[in-house]
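sorry for the late reply, my laptop died twice this morning and i had to redo everyting from scratch. anyway the thing you sent over, i finally got around to it. pasting the sequence first so we're on the same page, its 337 residues, then the predicted structure underneath. double check i copied it right bc i was rushing
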Amino acid sequence: SVVLSIDISGDWAVWMESNLWSGNYWHMHNMKTNERKTINSGADFSVYENKLIAHGVIMNNFTSENLATYNMDTGEIKEYVMELPPPIPGQYKYHLYEIFALDNKVAGTMYRENDIREVFFYDMVKCGKLQQISSDTEHDKKNPRIAGNSIVWEEQWPDGSGGVYYKLIQHDMTTGQKTTIASNLLDISTYSTWKDLVVWQDPSTLDFVVYNTTTGKKEIISNLTDGLAYQIAASANKIVWSGPLADYQQVFEYNLVTKKKKAVKFVPDIVEELRASGDRTLWNRWFITSVNDPLAKTPKFDAVEDKIIREGNLLEFKVRATDENGDSLSFTHPLAD
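ok and here's the structure:
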């Protein structure tokens, strides 16, 4: 099996696992209750609070042209019938591809067979027709996000020598204005959003850039890393990244309020994906998905009084501990049989 994608929001961490024999599955883990759910699926997804939002098949229901939500608390499934743009004569119809959910809003990409991706927006409260944001048929788009009242995405451009680079595009949903906010991102570059903010790393200077989509202001943060970050996530006034690229087993965190950097975790494998929600950070390292939860509490042991026995006799006593997270406990000791 291999983990294809991950996401985290609220108390839920979700990852999609692909198995050669049994197909694709979503695994959902509640970090507060330790509840675990698994359902079969084969679709791209996004998580917001207690809902998993996806296109494609959920438990053998619905189609790849519609959206659906799965309530991870109740198990309720709801379908949203999409009105995709009609096919152009002689071309294939559109299919949904990537999606990103925030509140009841969805940004994503859609594609025709053998065609480039275009960006769309969908309001799950108003429902109705899907809104196509981009219509440039020359440049592929990927990784759409919602930041404030804007849709942001990466757009592929040729570099003149057979390679490509990416522009970071902002589309203001109120004014309809399209703005290029970064123009030199690499194929391996990543960016993230949180509320009105967009965060990325400038590959030429290695500075982190924090851009406010509402005010248009940029904050440049220098000297956080001496190499290119491999994965970037933003949440709760912090930037989290793995890297630099030559050493991307290390996960770091920078607080935008306190202006302090700290090492979060050394991971003994490549960090493939990185997501953040509140104080929690989720990452995928090859076949293992891990979560760093600073809210988790260490079990507390009751005091053990001194014990006196004769030499050669068996020492037996009971230990007690409580866990503030409500987890069940088991006890082992390296000297015990």
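Residues 332-337 have pLDDT under 50 and may be disordered.
thats about all i looked at so far, will dig more tmrw
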